[in-house]
Amino acid sequence: MKKFHYVILAGIFIIVFGITVVLLTTNQSVPPVDVLLDQSGLTSIGGVYFDQFSLHNHGSHNVTVVVVIKNDLDNGPRMSDPVQICPGCTATALVEEHQPPLNADQTDVFTNIVLHPDYISVEYLSVVLATPITFDVLRQVAWMLVAAGLVVMAYGLRLSNSSRRKGTKRSKRSRNSKK
Question: Minimal CA–CA distance to 92: which of 30, 33, 32, 133?
Fold first, then answer.
């Protein structure tokens, strides 16, 4: 088998692996818990700021969940302590927030960032404990794998085309040398 065949097969493998990871992370089970944003907000406890989320379990079983949040001030997602919620009940989750800057000019920017996070999600505690990184990050990495697989396949096809061209040039030369 020629080199380009291995490259194309590697590209196909990377694409299939990436799509599999995307599907596995997309089909994760979502807890039957709603974030009641109109009852949530920023709070201060003992001089420390927290994002306070009101959570409602509309399912029929007790659930233990964590709230995962990320805003522009974060390097990665932050999460609350585990919260157990009975069926039909409402509970509160706290996520420690970045503390406001001492410079008063930056307070408005800080407040705007804190009040408009990139995302808020509620996940089962068992899912969070089972994976060291969030499903969103894993899904993004999987899509990058799919893109990398496409690049590898394109490179393999280019190698294939260049070897065919070389083969046709050689066969023309060998015909010309026989004359």
Answer: 33
Query: Could you tell me the two tokens for 96?
Result: 């420690």
Minimal CA–CA distance to 42: which of 94, 101, 107, 102?
A: 94
**CB under 8 Å to 52, separation ≥6 — which residues?**
40, 41, 42, 43, 92, 93, 94
First to last CA, the chain: 32
Structure tokens at 17: 């692996």
Domain 29-129 belongs in CATH node 2.40.128? no
| CA–CA gap between residue 6 and residue 9 (Å, rounded) | 5
pLDDT in tens, 90-136: 999 999 988 877 777 787 888 888 888 888 888 888 766 666 666 67
Is 0.70 topped by the overall pTM?
Answer: no
